[in-house]
Amino acid sequence: MDGAQTPNTSPVLILLGPPGAGKGTQARMLEEQFGFVQLSTGDLLRAAVAAGTEAGQRARSVMEAGELVSDEIVIAILRDRMAQPDCAKGVILDGFPRTAVQAEALDRLLEETGQKIDAAVSLEVDDAAMVTRISGRYTCGTCGEGYHDSFKQPKAKGTCDKCGGTEFKRRADDNAETVASRLDAYHAQTAPLIAYYKAQGALIGIDAMGEIDDIARKMTAIVKTATA
Question: Which residue of the set 46, 79, 98, 218 is catalytic?
Answer without folding.
Answer: 98
